[in-house]
C-alpha cells in the first residue's frame, strides 16, 4: 500500500492511498477555502444512559447535487474545485466538512443535563474515483487495499488518546438516507465506545471469561456445521446470514479466526475478507438486478489501549428491503421497545442469496 498526505486549502488533512506509487506533484483541493468552524457537543440522556451528539451546522451539508457538481469526483474545472484532486490513486480519506464530532470541539453549552465537547473525528472514505463504481464493481485488489486503508485509519485515529472506538461504515442508497451517490463510506472515531458495540463487547467478554474462546468464533463454527445460511467461505473468511438476523437480508462477514481490529489481519485473512465482501455485494446487486441499498458497519476492538481478546472484527449489513418492493420499516417494537420483529426466516433469505450466481474474479464494468 502506498499513501500520500496533503493539506487542503481549508486546513483539512487529505490522505491518498494506492496500489501503486503516487506522484508527489498532486495539489489538494477543496470546495471552499474557509476553515471548518464546527463545534459539536454531547448531551447526556439520563433515561437511556448514553450520549447524544448535536451538530446543527450539518443542516447545510451538500444534498443530492447534480452529477456535474459531484463534490467527491476529482476536480476537472479549477473554478469549481471538489474534495478530490486529479491524479492516479485508488482511495482518498479526508475530514468531513460537516462533522458530528471534531477533535477541536470545545466549550459545550450549559444544560440541565451533563454536556461535553464532541471530541471525536468524522472522516470520509472515497472508495474510487469513478462515480459509477460500487464495492461490487471494484477489483479484488482494490477491495484488499480498502481493508488495509481501514486498518491504517484505525491506527492513525486510535493513536489519539481522545479516541476510544473507530467505526468504519457505508450508507448505500437513498433508502438509508444517502445524499451523495459517489461510492464512499465514513469513519466515526468516538471518545467512548458507543452503545451498540459496547453491548456486543460486553456479551463477548462474558462469554470469553467463561469459555476462554470467542463468542463469534464459536457462532461461526456452529454456522458452518449447520450449513444452511452460508453465503461465502474459504479457509480464512466467511459470510453468512446469521441465525439471529434482525433484518430479512442481513449478512455478516468475518475472518474465521478472531482478530481484534483491521490492524491485526494477516494478508491471507484480508484477501479472504475482500473476496467475501465482493461476493456479498455482487449477490445483493444480482438479487433483483439493481443496485441494492444497505448500511454496512465494521465492528472491532476499542482503541483504549487495553487488551480485548474477546473482540472479533466483523461487518454487519443492514439492508432496508424485506421484499423487492417493500421496505422493512423500523416502527413500534423496534424503535420503542428495542426488540426487532423479522418478517422472514433467515434460512429463507439465505437461500435467495445463495441462488444468485456471481463471479468475483471477473472485472465488472461500471
UniProtKB/TrEMBL annotation:
Catalytic activity annotation: alpha-D-galactose 1-phosphate + UDP-alpha-D-glucose = alpha-D-glucose 1-phosphate + UDP-alpha-D-galactose
Cofactor(s) the protein requires to work: Zn(2+)
Biological or metabolic pathway of the protein: Carbohydrate metabolism; galactose metabolism
Residues in Galactose-1-phosphate uridyl transferase N-terminal domain copies: 38-194
Keywords noted in UniProt: Carbohydrate metabolism, Galactose metabolism, Metal-binding, Nucleotidyltransferase, Transferase, Zinc
Pfam families referenced in this protein's UniProt entry, alphabetically: GalP_UDP_tr_C, GalP_UDP_transf
SUPFAM superfamilies xref list: HIT-like (SSF54197)
Name of the featured protein: Galactose-1-phosphate uridylyltransferase
Species classification: Bacteria, Bacillati, Cyanobacteriota, Cyanophyceae, Nostocales
Gene: galT
Amino acid at each position: 500500500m502506498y499513501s500520500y498526505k496533503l493539506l487542503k486549502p481549508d486546513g483539512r488533512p487529505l490522505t491518498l492511498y494506492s496500489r501503486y506509487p503516487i506522484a508527489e506533484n498532486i495539489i489538494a483541493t477543496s470546495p471552499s477555502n474557509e476553515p471548518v468552524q464546527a463545534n459539536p457537543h454531547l448531551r447526556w440522556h439520563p433515561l437511556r444512559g448514553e450520549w447524544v451528539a448535536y451538530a446543527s451546522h450539518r443542516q447545510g451539508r451538500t444534498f443530492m447535487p447534480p452529477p456535474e457538481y459531484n463534490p467527491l469526483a476529482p476536480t476537472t474545472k479549477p473554478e469549481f474545485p471538489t474534495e478530490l484532486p486529479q491524479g492516479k490513486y485508488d482511495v482518498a480519506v479526508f475530514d468531513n466538512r460537516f462533522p458530528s464530532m471534531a477533535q477541536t470541539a470545545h466549550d459545550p453549552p450549559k444544560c440541565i443535563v451533563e454536556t461535553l465537547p464532541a471530541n471525536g473525528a468524522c472522516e470520509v472514505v472515497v472508495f474510487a474515483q469513478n462515480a459509477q463504481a460500487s464495492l461490487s464493481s471494484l477489483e479484488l485488489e482494490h477491495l484488499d487495499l480498502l481493508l488495509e486503508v481501514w486498518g491504517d485509519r484505525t491506527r492513525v485515529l486510535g493513536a489519539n488518546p481522545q479516541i476510544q472506538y473507530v467505526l468504519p461504515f457505508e450508507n448505500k442508497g437513498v433508502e438509508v438516507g444517502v445524499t451523495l451517490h459517489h461510492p464512499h463510506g465514513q469513519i466515526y472515531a468516538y471518545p467512548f465506545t458507543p452503545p451498540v458495540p459496547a453491548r456486543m463487547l460486553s456479551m463477548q467478554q462474558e462469554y470469553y471469561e467463561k469459555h476462554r474462546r470467542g463468542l463469534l468464533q464459536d457462532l461461526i463454527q456452529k454456522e458452518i456445521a449447520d450449513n444452511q445460511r452460508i453465503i461465502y467461505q474459504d479457509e480464512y473468511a466467511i459470510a453468512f446470514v446469521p441465525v439471529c438476523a434482525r433484518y430479512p437480508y442481513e449478512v455478516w462477514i468475518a475472518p474465521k479466526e478472531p482478530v481484534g481490529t483491521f490492524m491485526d489481519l494477516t494478508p491471507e485473512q484480508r484477501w479472504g475478507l475482500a473476496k467475501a465482501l465482493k461476493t456479498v455485494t455482487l449477490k445483493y446487486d444480482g438479487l433483483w438486478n439493481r443496485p441494492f441499498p444497505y448500511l454496512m458497519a465494521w465492528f472491532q476492538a476499542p482503541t483504549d489501549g487495553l487488551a480485548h481478546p474477546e473482540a472479533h472484527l466483523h461487518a454487519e449489513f443492514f439492508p432496508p428491503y424485506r421484499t423487492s418492493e417493500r421496505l422493512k420499516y423500523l416502527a413500534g417494537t423496534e424503535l420503542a421497545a428495542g426488540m426487532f420483529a423479522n418478517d422472514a426466516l433467515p434460512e429463507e433469505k439465505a437461500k435467495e442469496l445463495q441462488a444468485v450466481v456471481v463471479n468475483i474474479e471477473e472485472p465488472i464494468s461500471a
